[in-house]
DNA sequence: TTTGTTTCTTGATGCCGGTCAAGTTTTTAT
DNA sequence: ATAAAAACTTGACCGGCATCAAGAAACAAA
């Protein structure tokens, strides 16, 4: 599996899941591989949006900058996630910034190539529509949540959801407080305070290494 | 409204724009027409999401309810807009509420029919992807804006953008203050106050009938 | 280790904007 | 038209959370 290092990227990606091995080979042959160190930039706002990016390993954050310079984290890209679909069909520019949080591998496909692929394998468009749909639903919730709920409720919700999606009761925060803060639309200081408060009333326990242990998920979800 | 059942609905919709007249006829023959009075419900959260809705006239709001009961306006559907694409490809339920603001006409297409159409006319999927992309981009901006900018900045931005998109310098607010408030993530009272303040410093002029006249768009955009 | 740097925590302070309330204007209905 | 209801405005109050600042802890490099 060296020159044969084949579908490393593409087989990870849900949007290609219905395809056969030889079709994946075809795709793999047209992707470009990149590696990014922590802190390195994957893309900037205003960059021409001409490639679809596939994260084949690592972790990266996608964020926007508001007019006042404040940062808003929109997505946390994990292995198998894609980015750049948003305007693959228009000739727009990016509106967000992408930055590796850990050593990260990315495969990219040029727009024209991807469009050809979609014509050839219609299942891809359907899958892309699915990705869009999920992302829209997620963003709608995030918008509603940041606009209408208290920081405490948002944080409590984030903790219980993360634990639930990992099917665990204790987990390590996947982000620095600063990034978590921009994701939840607040500040690192407030996160610290709220976590301390949750611990004081027994809802969670904090352990060294950013480990959070959920003690009472039901109560956490009742916070408003 | 629909005296002669031509392609009244479907010809309005960007996603069908490449299709020929007889193809539009085919589509028109499978849509269902509905009419809603102001305040009537188009759909509720938890409704099965099995139809694509096309607004052929009027205006409707799409909003979510947060856990604490507060409302968040996500989209304002106008003639030609569609809704329900989000989960046309999964068997999910709705997460938002739809409500007519004025007398509103809607055509709907059942999911299976729409999927058949997409197979038959591939241009439709591409167009749907475009709609998704625009909506995602818009929501990303809205998320960033509500999470990071002041109410004053958001309102100022809304005013200048609305004026710009209408290519006018004075316009009638298309929403009641309450709805505008839930769109901007604030309250009717605060909107009133901020508008009064803008007027006091000469940035805008308010005229009877919810008419807003922009006097200094540049200054408005500098507010933070 | 030791040193420097980044991240995190905790305190003090202030303000934006939400809430409640009362009065006014506009819209709708009769 | 007048009456009733809904929408809007303005004031008073105050609480949540951002900001600024300083110290503690965690991490990285040499």
Automatic annotation (TrEMBL), chains A, B:
The entry's keywords: DNA-binding, Transcription, Transcription regulation
Pfam families (alphabetical): cNMP_binding, HTH_Crp_2
Domain HTH crp-type: start-end pairs: 149-218
CDD domains the record matches: CAP_ED (cd00038)
Coiled coil start-end: none
Cyclic nucleotide-binding domain boundaries: 15-135
PANTHER family found in the cross-reference section: CRP FAMILY TRANSCRIPTIONAL REGULATORY PROTEIN (PTHR24567), REGULATORY PROTEIN YEIL (PTHR24567:SF26)
Protein name: Crp/Fnr family transcriptional regulator
Species of origin: Lactiplantibacillus daoliensis
């Amino acid at each position: 599996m060296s020159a044969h290092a084949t579908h490393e990227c593409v087989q990870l990606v849900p949007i290609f899941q219905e395809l056969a091995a030889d079709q994946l080979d075809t795709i793999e042959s047209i992707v470009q591989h990149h590696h990014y160190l922590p802190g390195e930039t994957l893309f900037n706002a205003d960059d021409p949006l001409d490639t679809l990016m596939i994260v084949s390993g690592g972790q990266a954050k996608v964020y926007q900058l508001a007019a006042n310079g404040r940062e808003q984290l929109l997505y946390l890209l994990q292995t198998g996630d894609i980015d750049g679909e948003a305007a693959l069909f228009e000739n727009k520019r990016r509106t967000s910034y992408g930055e590796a949080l850990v050593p990260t591998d990315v495969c990219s496909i040029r727009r024209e190539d991807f469009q050809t692929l979609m014509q050839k394998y219609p299942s891809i468009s359907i899958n892309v529509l699915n990705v869009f749909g999920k992302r829209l639903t997620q963003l709608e919730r995030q918008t509603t949540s940041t606009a209408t709920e208290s920081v405490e409720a948002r944080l409590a919700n984030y903790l219980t959801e993360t634990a639930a999606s990992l099917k665990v009761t204790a987990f390590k925060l996947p982000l620095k407080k600063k990034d978590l803060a921009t994701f939840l639309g607040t500040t690192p200081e407030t996160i610290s305070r709220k976590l301390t408060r949750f611990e004081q009333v027994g809802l969670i326990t904090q352990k060294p290494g950013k480990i959070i242990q959920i003690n009472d998920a039901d109560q956490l979800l009742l916070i408003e």
